[in-house]
Design a protein that fits this description.
Layout lengths: L3 E9 L5 E10 L4 E5 L6 H9 L7 E7 L13 E4 L3 H4 L6 H13 L3 H14 L5 H4 L9 H13 L5 E5 L7 H18 L2 E6 L2 H5 L4 E6 L2 E7 H6 L4 H8 L7
Parallel strand pairs: 3-7, 3-8, 5-6, 6-7
Antiparallel strand pairs: 1-2, 1-4, 8-9
Helix pairs in contact: 3-4, 3-6, 4-6, 6-7
Length: 250
């Protein structure tokens, strides 16, 4: 029984732009799935549709079900979401510790003192230095990589079953990208979460995901196990994505 079961998913926006069409997708508990495609391929729309974060102007067709949960997934509680730009996803006038604690307080019904203590523990889990001191800092005082670690701490704060990382490394330099991917891999494995990793970088995703789904023009082009797809892609588009990245086997 899959954790996530998507069938015939289509999304249109108010200007009648078709962002997704006829998407069928399953995700098992603990599975790491990468959603790959160029800008405009519909991958972020898929992630936001699954998390219930589409704008009101979007028209959705098809179904998104959660068989293993037996109910609709709760965003923030069952689904943790990491956005591309941590600078815009964090409130600039609230300390980062308070922002993580607020996620805990709301989703786990925890009192503020306990939520603040757990927030420090979460900042430590994402490998931020001196977490008790850093909890008092504001987003503008942190580097881009540190902000993204705070955003990840907030995303996992309530112990979600699914972590969605939507281009969570694209705004970072190469070294920090590798660190964030390693961090996400470790957290997902430790907590037994499923992962939906959205990226335009098939090489980066191949180092993280069990399976890859390739999107183009709002449609699912190809899906399969990472090793098999890298070794013998079926679609010309997937081959082109692979050819565009050097050092995949390094």
């Amino acid at each position: 029984m899959p954790l996530l079961h998507v069938r015939g998913l289509g999304v249109r926006y108010d200007n009648d732009v078709l962002a997704l069409e006829g998407v069928d997708l399953d995700l098992d508990a603990g599975e790491r799935l990468a959603i790959i495609g160029e800008s405009g391929s519909g991958k972020s729309t898929l992630a936001r549709a699954i998390a219930g974060l589409l704008p009101p102007a979007a028209t959705v067709e098809g179904s998104i079900a959660w068989p293993e949960l037996g109910r609709v997934a709760r965003n923030g509680r069952d689904i943790g979401f990491v956005f591309q730009d941590p600078g815009s996803s964090l409130d600039p006038v609230i300390s980062v510790g308070a922002q993580v604690a607020e996620v805990v307080r709301v989703n786990l019904d925890m009192a503020w003192p306990a939520a603040r203590r757990l927030a420090v523990e979460l900042l430590d889990r994402v490998k931020l230095p001196e977490p008790a001191l850093l909890a008092k800092a504001y987003p503008h005082q942190l580097s881009g990589g540190q902000k993204q670690r705070v955003a990840i701490a907030a995303a996992i704060a309530a112990g979600p079953r699914l972590l969605i990382a939507d281009e969570a490394t694209s705004a970072l330099d190469t070294i920090v990208q590798a660190e964030i991917v390693s961090l996400i891999r470790g957290l997902v494995d430790e907590d037994g979460m499923a992962l939906l990793f959205v990226s335009h970088d098939i090489a980066l995703a191949a180092n993280l995901a069990d399976n890859i789904a390739v999107f183009r023009h709002g449609r699912l082009v190809e899906a399969g196990m990472t090793g098999e797809m890298i070794a013998a892609p079926v679609s010309d588009y997937t081959r082109a994505l692979l050819d565009a990245h050097l050092g995949l086997d390094a």
